[in-house]
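DATA CLASS: polypeptide
GOAL: derive structure tokens

***
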Amino acid sequence: MPDYRAPLRDIRFVMHELLQAERHYRNLHGCEKPTPDLLDAILQSAGKFAENVIAPLNRSGDEQGCRYHAGRVTTPDGFRAAFAEYARGGWQALSVPTAEGGQGLPASCSTAVGELLGSANYAWSMIGGLAQAPINLLLAAGSARQKATYLPRLLSGDWAGTMCLTEPHCGSDVGLVRTRAVRNADGSYAISGTKIFISGGEQDITENIIHTVLARIEGAPGGTAGISLFVVPKILVAEDGSPGAANTLSCGAIENKMGLKGSPTCVMHFDGATGFLLGEENGGLDIMFRLMNTARLGTALQGVSMGEAAFQGALDYARERLQMRSLSGPKNPAGPADPIIVHPDVRRMLLTQKALTEGSRALVYWLAQLVDTSSHGPAQEAAQAGALLSLLTPIAKAFCTETGFEVTSLGVQVFGGHGYIREHGMEQLLRDSRIAMLYEGTTGIQSLDLLGRKVMGSQGKLLAHVTGLIHRFCTTHDGHSAMAEFIEPLAALNCQWGELTTAIGTRARRDPEEIGAASVDYTLYAGYVVLAYLWARMARVALQALAQDDAGEAGFYRAKLTTARFYYARLLPRATAHARAAEAGADTLMAMPERDFWY
């Protein structure tokens, strides 16, 4: 397993230089406003914790995995102690309002911390990440009594939590939920049903687990309109806050998974378990969807985290591994062969990893700032941020997880045969990253949301917020000779984005299947264009820094500029291929009868 090093220099570049964090935080209200020094101190502390405490548990956690016996789950050695240290550090409450017992920092601060923890040990990081579900849902819809009962112990890390949505017969189609809720005389509800794929549904790390459960109250309408949301604690809580009786719920099994073996994925049975309604009856999905952007961005961040870890491992190996001579003559004449980093194809793989990971980091951190603004910015800016988030979130979730998996696959490839065996840890990163393309809505689900609901559903208005932003950037830099290599292709693709949308929309009026047929390629096209916009912005920052002749940092900025050029020359052409595929039409997918798929 490669040693993980927190990429603090690049994170500071994105937050301070690209996204102007100091100015961003100064414009917020109703939250703490971290100074650059405080932000750097938070990142430094989180980086040390990630490097020294949880990264050493990553491989052992994968090899040991979680164990199930008679309804109980044992997590890998060291996980519990590491989480206790994390909890003592106050990390769980970082971005919770001070009025609710948190530290009150904007959500974007937690995003940066989340990347560091995820790269070091994603399975472990899910413990704290999952607790954010009941925390955020209680903040959004909990009563004063519910918040007083549950939030303090969730924020202290004494308790963790889950989101219980999926059932054996349905995944993303929550309108098919069968879990029942029956009103009790005391105002609580008896919850009965089975949920699957519940990360952290049972574990030995915290004293209690607060489940948030989607269920249908007796007599509720069918479909999504009849779904309610409940808080269902593993251990009931007495009036004075002390632990009461065990609730009537249990873990029936844990899944034998491809990856993330240190995080238990549970089958949960609720047998008339006592639950408490969050918000209004039949309003569960409204509450849940308020938080969906946060959950999807968290999954997009997994693509960044896994990609960063894979890139670091591949880069270290490429610098050390000696094999063959450079085509242009020996670069290591004193040794028997040259390090493989001198070979063009290895450079291609490393630069692809670097360009996609650093570009995706910029995208997710930008969206995290938009979350800040939508919650704490002036009204007009908050509305604009909300519109951008609505369109960009499904792009980020789909694109960053798809490319994150590509980056981890390239990590295996750089190692050659050594990448395919467990010893070096690259195959674990590949396995761990694969789930990100599935949970919180698959790439196909995100793409339908983007093209069908967001773009066509708004008649292009949401798209115009993004393409307008890119257009203004291109117009501002039109005529700047140093930026021409980025501005000209970006402007052309931005124009093509509108034309592609119009062409698909015209066909969809005749055949609705055109939306589904085009959606994934459309989303990936959008992802490459949005990353091109961010790489152009990063190139501008690098050019400005190099013009100031800061010799101590010149190497960093030259690398940033070189990576931007690589992205435009080698990766951005993929957008054109996705556009052509999106325009190919539904007939190429739907014409074949089902019976003809196999002979």
About this structure: Residues 379-415 form the longest helix (37 residues). The mean pLDDT is 96.
